[in-house]
Fold each of these.
Amino acid sequence: MNRRFAIDGVFILLTGLAVLMIVAMVAVVLGNIAYHGWERLTWQFLTDQPRAGMTEGGIFPAIFGTVLLVLLMTLVGVPLGVCVAIYFSEYADRTSRFYRWTRQAVNNLAGVPSIVFGLFGLGFFVQFVGGAIDDAAYAGRLTFGQPALIWAALTMAVLTLPVVIVSVEEALRAVPQSYRDASAALGATRTQTIFRVVLPNALAGVLTGTILAVGRGAGEVAPILFVGAAYFLPHLPTHLSDQFMHLGYHVFVLSTQSPDVEATKPILYATVFVLLGLTFLLNLVAIAIRTRLRLAAAGAR
Amino acid sequence: MNSSAASARDYPLLKTQVQARATDAPAPKEAGKMGVESLTVLYGARVAVNAVSMQFHSNLITAIIGPSGCGKSTLLRALNRMNDSIPGIKVEGKVLLDGAEVYAPGTDVIQLRRRVGMVFQQPNPFPKSIYDNVAYGLRVNGMAGSRADLDSNIERALRQAALWNDVKDRLNRNALQLSGGEQQRLCIARALAVRPEVLLMDEPASALDPVSTAKIEELMFELKKDYTIVIVTHNMQQAARCSDFTAFLLTGSLIEFNPTASLFTTPSDERTEAYITGRFG
């Protein structure tokens, strides 16, 4: 009897310690970054461009590039993901072979390592699509056939697609069947039902999908290494075929390519701090919108 | 007899109505506004509705009763093709609306559903305003017209559903704030707004309290002046109180279809008698 109690106690202690360890790790990471990054975080740091071999100046081009990338990615990826989710949830015959294959394809897409997406983007978007555009519209002059903002955004859109699809589909399925029945019984077409009843009631889920995609897109570096992120640019990107700076890639550059490690260190800390802050902020805003929508729906009930 | 007597006690208002009916009813076999001929509905290999033939007459209420799973809802939903989207379903035989085959190739299902409205078991208003709920069918069917037309159509539908006086000052409120009974009357108004010819009601009062149920039943009695009404119910008292004809379904087959008064007082089939006297189901 005592022995059993002892095992019980030890096990509770072990699981509790595991939890504490995770909390401690998060606290150390966040605390360390906040502590070291805070002192360098000034308005000037946020609005200036890197100077003197990245040992001075700020990170504005990287912030700008990251935000632009995420916006473009969302613009392409979310509508596409919503379309796929609508097909799966509203139109597809769930017993058909086509449905099972496409569903499996989406699952597989979610499991592909992000560096592979980068290579895919380079091969497909940059060389194949971009090259074709250059041949057709720019008389072979290198314009779109090189790493560019648009290709990075498209690559990231493909990468985040499974996240969007799964969460939007979940939201669509959560819309009561009785709404669809009521709409159909009133003589609405399926498309009218989707746009007037199903989608408006799944808005919170569409936003959740967007949040998750944005959170992922802002932090991923590997896929954009070959398709558009630049080491350093003197000018902000003004065209879809321009390259861009990216916070995540900038962190990598600062931590491996600096000529003066000690001078770069505070900048590195502050950059990571901004990257974390930006991701948190984006999530926070989206979660706030979602909560308001849910509260409005609950208030109506 | 027992059930109609009991209902007249519970709802004195309806007593005269129950007695007034029965006499002016046409013969059940005569072609009605809507009808089914040897209708069989299969879910895969399972027969849900088995070779049912019956007619639904205008300005009359036809009730379909039977124990759970007897196929009465499937039969009802076959009338406006609401079963179409169920995978593996197969419909054989005929469904006729004004003599035209509902399942004929090339039938405009959208138009069919506008003409044959439906009210469901659970009140299912959209989480929109009361106004937008009633306007929905008009809008999706391109019948909205000018704002004044839309307003007057919505008022007409809400009046027909005996809801106008209760909600006229709060048309912009969310429909989900209404009580269950009000929600169901809103769903009836929503169905009436597109000026259907037939109204299908799938256990419209089974989720409601007795007072709301009585209101829905009185409403049905008003509505039959203008519509062909088919109601599915597992509440025999309700069928006895409201309907002119009653069909008794058992395991997908039509056992008996007769004027309500005679079905409940002198059932011609012993299975009907067993069911209405509560020996099974």
Amino acid sequence: MKLLTLALAALLPCLAASSDADPGKSLGSPTAPIRIEVFSDFECPACKGLHEQILPLIMRDYVIPGKVFLVSREFPLAMHKYSREAASYATAAARVDKYQPVADTLFKNQAAWEVSGKVWDTVANVLTPVEARKVQLLARDPSVMGEVERDVDAGRAAGINQTPTMIVTSGTRRFPVAGAVNYNLLRSMLDGLLK
Amino acid sequence: MVSSSRVFRAVVLALRWLLGAMFVYAAWTKLRQPWELFAMSIDAYKVLPYWAVLAVARTLPWAELAIGLALMAGRWLRVSAAAASLLLLGFFVLMVRTYVKGMQIDCGCFGLGDPISPRTLLRDGTLLAGCLFLTWTSFCGRRTAA
């Protein structure tokens, strides 16, 4: 909920998001000096930790002040039974501007749906009936499945083999940050890049 | 005697260069990026307090560089080979501990995309064996020309 509030505050500038970033899955100004792409899997516990504990801090300290452009990328791992389905629903939800609430609820209720397999029920809880119908149709749309696949391909091309991984880009320099993150260290690094 | 054989000396020389280059490469992969990235890798092992994570992240790459150059140059061979062995032994013990505990993290050895696995354990175990052999030869007076 906290992340959703912060996300809404940062939503407007991303209407002009750069071409390779899905505007519905991007937060902040595309012209920010630093770009962070977060490759995550909705069924991964460390991704839940990053989403719920670290991303709100990045939003508050860097995205809202216009220093970081945050892009969410899907990287469903083969070892997780329902993560690709979750990624498809989340990507479909981005087409109706509901990516953040869907991502929030998927991570919040991860322990339940990864056992029950009731991914759709979890997603539908944060959508209106009209949005739910659209998202259900969109999730089977080849363009949505293609977008998920492009994210996976981009992650593999960047050498990613675990989630979560953040690719921090500052100018022409790119730095991968893998696994659980200590925010003090991440902040020190981002501040150093902003100097 | 084996110690006087040219083959033995060639093997020791090749080992010195291989291990030295490996240490220099490991240092380079860390020094070319913000030090905080290496600090995050160390922190992921969850064995050091925060202040020690910072200290190790700032100093270890330089130590690796110095050890690597010394090994390649054949200078202070006993000290550099022993230091390299100690470092690799420390890394190896940590990696085994992490693997046994089932923690899925990057080893932090050569940058991203190197999660701890049987492959990385075999690699570091082999390097450790090579370093221990080099240390033994250096203390036995079997020095080779630089």
